[in-house]
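Before our next group meeting I need something from you. Please put the record directly below this note.
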Amino acid sequence: MRGKMEPVLRVKDLKTEFFTYTGVVKAVRGIDFSVNPGEAVGIVGESGCGKTVTGLSIMRLITYPPGKIVSGEVSLDGTDLLKLSESEMRKIRGAKISMIFQDPMTSLNPALTIGFQLSEMLILHKNITKEETKKKIIELLSMVRIKSPENVFNQYPHQLSGGMRQRAMIALALSCEPKIVIADEPTTSVDVTIQAQILNLLQDLKSRVNSSIILITHNLAVVAGLCSRIIVMYAGLIVEEGNDRQVFDNPKHPYTWGLLRAVPRVDEQEKERLSTIKGLPPDLMSPPKGCPFAMRCSYAMKICFEERPPYFNSEEGHRTMCWLLDKRAQKVKRDE
């Protein structure tokens, strides 16, 4: 009988705050999750929910001031990254864990060629010659389906299309074959056609290099074909987590219901206006003591405003932070 798979990444009670002139923004408010080897996990939620801050916190890229990781644990193969010095962390970034940033035009240096920028990562982490480095980079550019990689090697970021720049960023992230790749909205800056190509590329590379992927996005449709497990974040908290079947076919949190209703459906017989979630997210300088979604929730009860709900498990691997799952709660039917 096979033993239980040990996670390659484990995040425990992670809290990240931003200290501003007007107050402390509690961007991530104590989240827990893990990522298994070779697994793709999607983190979804609207802008400002803490998705990107979570990814940057894992990478130890939160800049102080104003941001600071105030507590928690981020364990990569048993090593707590939050306890490492900056010099120790530099040896891990790129080699064991890397990140594909949202906008490649601002992430790539406009004054340096693509080849030079990819070379830096290999020179830092791999003991190989200049000739071997160039050969490896051309292989990487070819692997991410860039045509004429020898020409792209000598080109600058502004000479490439948005899709090609994003592919170059993916090649950079995969150059040292890390165990974890964090992709932060990798399809935001490209059109729908290129978006599909990028997602197919990530799916192909996941199976080819066996890296685990954390895909950060505001769009549930984006994670549908790539991720086997989905984490729904709201107001700095994880409000629901489950596998793709559980979240798409049997969601339990009213916020997840709202996100799903906002996704266009190609199988609908009649054209209908897309649904929206009314109201605004809470102010994270003074977050509510109860459920953070209560003010926008059609099913909110008195307790929702008074006490934050614990996690309720509807089935194995499916947890939801919602009082509606308490056996004593009123029974509601999801609005389709």
User: Anything to note?
Assistant: The two ends are 42 Å apart (CA to CA).
